[in-house]
Amino acid sequence: MSHRPLYGHHSLRHRLTAAAADGRLPASVLLQGRRGVGKQRLALWLGQYLLCDRAMREHLPEPCGSCQHCRYAERAMHPDLHWFFPRPRLKDGDASTDDVKADLAEAITERMEAEGLWGPTPGTEGLYVATVRALVHMAAVRPAMAARQVFVVGDAERMVSQEGADQAANAFLKLLEEPPAGTTLLLTTSEPGALLPTIKSRVVSVRVPPLTPQDMQAFLDDAVVERKFSRTPREELLARANGAPGELLAGDSMSAAFASARRLLEAALAPTSPDGTADRIKAAARQGVAGARGSFSDTLDALTLLLHARTRQLTESGYEIDARRTASTLVIVEEAKTKAQGNVSPQLLSASLLASLHRTFNP
Fold first, then answer.
1. Which of 42, 49, 45 is nearest to 20 (CA)?
2. Is the dihedral of CA 115, 118, 124, 130 positive or negative?
3. What is the distance of C-alpha 314 from the center of its chain?
4. What contacts 179, CB < 8 A, 6 or more positions away?
């Protein structure tokens, strides 16, 4: 079991490793960016670089991948590369460091058994006070194997500020401000606005951008990824991810939204014939009769992404007229999104939307 390779972020990787090799990497760093762009994976990769036998000494642009430190880090087994992320609150309110480490070890094993493809943590999970205490305690202990140690804290905005936990919180803030020599803290967040201001003021923020289309293609070419999503058209995967591969692992709700959006698009593209009209009526009827918020709005968001992907595909194939027509339908969908915020029937709105899209596709 090992992590999936890190895809994309090449220029950012170069900047981070160059700073590390020159001794300019801050001791406390916050990687912030959209959900699913690979911030935790990037932080773990940087942690591997910092622990690598050769990388820092020889100013390599990336971890060597062959030393013992790299092999352990790639298998999420390095004793000096500590990975924290939101977890359910432990039943014992005063859980020990060993309890926290055991819980995280089990969760990390689950992620690795999923072949390094994990989805977002549920909103009910957090970084609770026992976790913060464990982190602070572990940072005070000398490295077990390497010359330094690295702490990766995913979804740092989930750090729960609890009454009566001031001592732990203050200790963590002091750790961020003055980490022990040879200790690096790498925090990640998709919601920097939700981060505790006292934390944000003590870290150096680095923006992690979405992946380029070329890097997304490389991710989808990964044998494990390809096998996992073999039943989904690639253009849909690219549209769903929109530069954030982790979005593909976000659960069943968006999969359902894209399936619904794909049916709408296919119906809109159906020919001007009795059968085509019947397809559009059926597609509209499947949208339900309840208020148009929620799942229907997700379907419209997914439809926007599918239309973007179709426009790009047509442009790359040289069909410029069809590409312009497809691009013009984005305005129609945006108007439908606005109407969907009111108390309207998704069936009626879909019927109107499909008629407008069909006329645009077939002038």
1. 49
2. positive
3. 28
4. 27, 28, 139, 185
Q: Which amino acid is at 72?
A: Y
pLDDT string in tens for the chain (363-residue length): 889 999 999 999 999 999 999 999 999 999 999 989 999 999 999 999 999 989 988 889 999 999 999 999 999 999 999 999 999 988 876 789 999 999 999 999 999 998 999 888 877 788 888 999 999 999 999 999 999 999 999 999 888 765 445 666 788 899 999 999 999 999 999 888 888 888 899 999 999 999 999 999 999 999 999 999 998 888 889 988 989 999 898 765 567 778 888 899 999 999 999 999 999 999 998 886 554 456 788 788 889 888 988 888 899 889 999 999 999 999 999 998 888 877 788 899 999 999 999 999 988
Helix-then-strand count for the chain, H and E: 16, 5
Q: In what order do the strands lie in the sheet with 28-32?
A: 81-84, 149-153, 183-189, 28-32, 204-207
Taking each helix axis from N to C end, the angle separating 346-361 and 320-340, rounded to the nearest 10 degrees, works out to 160
Model-level pTM greater than 0.85? Answer: no
In sign, the C-alpha dihedral spanning 194, 200, 203, 209 is positive
CA distance 185 to 187: 6
Closest CA to 215 of 240, 241, 236, 195: 241
User: The CATH number of 10-209 is which of 3.40.50.300, 3.40.50.670, 3.40.1400.10, 3.40.50.2000?
Assistant: 3.40.50.300
Domain residue ranges in the chain: 10-209, 251-361
Structure tokens belonging to residue 141: 């202990």
Specify the pairing of strand 204-207 against strand 183-189: unpaired
